[in-house]
Amino acid sequence: MSLDALREQLPAYAKDTKLNLGNLASDDSLDEQKRWGTFLSCAIAGRNPDVIKAIAAEAKEKLSEEAFTAAKAAAGIMSMNNVFYRFGHEAGNEVYKTMPAKLRMTIIGNPGVEKVDFELWSLAVSSINGCFMCVDSHEAIVRKAGLTSEQIQTAVRIASVVQAASVIVGAETALEG
C-alpha cells in the first residue's frame, strides 16, 4: 500500500485528513529526510498496521536504509522515554524528577543520521504520546540546531495528521468487523 492508497482508503468524513496527508507529503519546508522520517516515526507511534505499511512503503523510496532505521528507532525509544518522563512529571512527587532513569537510551546519542533529524522525529513522536517534558526538551535541541518555528510546526502537523489517519483507519476497521 502507498500513501495515495491510504488516502483513498479514508472515508468521506475524513476529507480534511486526506487532503492534509497529500499536502504534507509535498511540503518543502522540511527536506525529504526530515519529512519522511517524521512520517514514518509518527506512523509507528500511531500503532495502526495499515497506516504503518502505507507510510513505510513510501518512506522506503525516500529514505536511506540508515534513516529508515533511525526513524523506527526514534519511535521505539520515545515509546519508552515518553512513558517514563511523563510519569515523572505527572506523579506529583518531585522525588521522581531527581532520580536517575537507569534506562539504556544510547540510540539518542548515536542515531546513525544527523542528530537534528533524529531529535525532530523524537519531538513529533513525543507530541503524539503527550509527553510535555520530552516535547520541551527535543524542541529546544532542534531550535538550537537551527530549525525554524515553521519547520518544527510542520513536523508536528505531520504528527497530528498521521495520528488522525491512524485513528480513522483503526475505527473504520473496527466498525467493519
List the helices and strands and how they pair.
Layout: H1 3-9, H2 15-25, H3 32-46, H4 49-62, H5 65-90, H6 95-98, H7 115-129, H8 132-144, H9 149-176
Task: Walk me through this protein's architecture.
Its EC number is 1.11.1.28. With 177 residues, this protein is mainly α. It has a single domain (3-176), classed as Up-down Bundle (AhpD-like), CATH 1.20.1290. Helix content is 75%, strand content 0%. The protein is built from 9 helices and no strands. The protein has helices spanning 3-9, 15-25, 32-46, 49-62, 65-90, 95-98, 115-129, 132-144, 149-176. Helix 1 (3-9) packs antiparallel against helix 2 (15-25). The two termini are 21 Å apart. The model has no long low-confidence stretch (mean pLDDT 96).
CATH architecture call: Up-down Bundle
The assigned structural class equals mainly alpha
Order of helices and strands: HHHHHHHHH
Spans where pLDDT lies below 50 across 5 or more residues: none
Largest sheet: none
CATH topology annotation: AhpD-like
Helix content: over 70%
Shape: globular
| Tally of contiguous helical segments | 9
Q: How far is it from the N-terminal to the C-terminal residue, by CA?
A: 21 Å
User: What is the number of E strands?
Assistant: 0
CATH superfamily: AhpD-like
In what range is the share of β-strand residues? Answer: under 5%
Q: How confident overall, as mean pLDDT?
A: 96
Question: Class, according to the CATH hierarchy?
Answer: Mainly Alpha
Rounded to the nearest angstrom, the radius of gyration is 16 Å
As for the number of domains, it is: 1
